[in-house]
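anyone seen this seq b4? input:
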Amino acid sequence: MARLPGRQFLIQQVSGTVILFEDGTEREIARFDPADISATAQAQKTIRDSELSDEDKCFAHFWSGYFYAHAGGDR
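predicted toks r here
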């Protein structure tokens, strides 16, 4: 699990799913299977279009890529 710099959002992998959510409310911003390149790409678009600050978006993209790289999915 990683807390984004703004301290409001967390990203974590639970079993085979990555979830980006708001801490405290548990409101989901994105949920995806990191082993699926299409799902990861859609999550990247969702992050880009979200209300997160630019810095939080940057870190959310980084962690999404990290989880994708370690998932060993459909490459």
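The CA atoms of residues 5 and 45 lie 20 Å apart. The helical segments are 37-48, 54-69. kinda curious what u guys think
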